[in-house]
Task: structure prediction
Amino acid sequence: MQPRSVVLALVVALPLAAFGRLARAQYTMDRHPAVAADSAGATALRVLRADLSRLRLAQDSFYVAHRTYAGDTAGLGWRPESDAVFRIMWADSLTWVATAQHPRLTGAEVLTVRRTADAPRRP
Result:
């Protein structure tokens, strides 16, 4: 194997191995939903929840690299696609809490993600 091939293999294999550890993580999630009053609000709520899903993926990627969750969205390099305002209220190595508010919704969507353990490896 050429030296360049070894470097390329490591560049590809190491992130995949880290992702494999992440994929085996066990989570608990609590969600306190916002309320939509009309069809425009329902559309805003769907887009907001899709943004929350993308935020969770961004946090998972950050966790793989840093073994902790990001304390703000700027540190993730993540931006919402909706007009909602997102805030990461708490983040450490096990838990993160995000709120999302949209002018067309009543209340705030609150998502709490707790990393309970890494799942045991299969033989």
Observations:
- The chain has three helices and six strands.
- The longest helix spans residues 39-66.
- The chain has one domain: 26-115.
